[in-house]
Design brief:
35% of the residues lie in helices and 18% in strands. With 176 residues, it is an alpha/beta fold. The protein has one domain: Rossmann fold. A six-stranded parallel sheet has the order 3-2-1-4-5-6, with helices on both faces. It starts with a strand and ends with a helix. The structure holds magnesium ion.
């Protein structure tokens, strides 16, 4: 039995193709490597949560209900392949609203920790933006960047091309 640990997942550009302010659940497409990587992390004890900034709501591009409908579709598509998302947390605000939940602010990570009962100090945050890496580090965990060819160092613990490669790295780090 492996100890459970929390993995905070960015959504758009990490789990599914980033279509920039996607508001149609039927437009959700899971990225290559996502299913296999998440299945392997899960088998190794990872409890998976989604932390997503959806500023399209705050910008007036779509409403909160629509944002959650898209998220539900992502969770459903993963579930069809056996991947369980334990909790989803969303920031619906535009950057200029200066809220306390937009990544890299820690509020949504804390929400996931409360919802799952797991510590952030042993967590990994995986995403395709600096804000994802900064969130992971800011809460005392590790940040892993998903990027085809990382051009910048955001202080990430690692850079991987997709979630399958991310799983390789994390499992190796945990000696699994
Ligand atoms: Mg993203």
């Amino acid at each position: 039995m492996t100890d459970p640990f929390l993995v905070l997942l960015d959504r758009d550009g990490t789990i599914n193709i980033d279509k920039h302010y996607l508001s149609d659940p039927d437009g959700v497409e899971i990225l290559p490597g996502a299913i296999s990587g998440l299945l392997r992390l899960q088998a190794a004890g990872a409890v998976l949560a989604i932390v997503t900034n959806q500023s399209g709501v705050g910008r007036g591009y779509f409403d909160l209900e629509t944002a959650w409908a898209v998220n539900k579709r992502v969770v459903e598509l993963l579930a069809q392949h056996g991947v369980t998302i334990a909790h989803s947390a969303m920031c619906p605000h535009a950057p200029e609203e200066a809220c306390t939940c937009r990544k890299p602010a820690p509020e949504l990570a804390l929400e996931c920790a409360r919802a799952t009962g797991l510590a952030l100090t042993s967590s990994w945050t995986i995403g395709d933006k600096a804000s994802d890496v900064q969130l992971g580090r800011g809460v005392g965990g590790k940040g892993l960047l998903i990027a085809a060819s990382p051009a910048q160092d955001f202080g990430q613990s690692a850079s991987c091309t997709d979630l399958d490669a991310a799983a390789d790295f994390i499992l190796q780090e945990r000696g699994l």
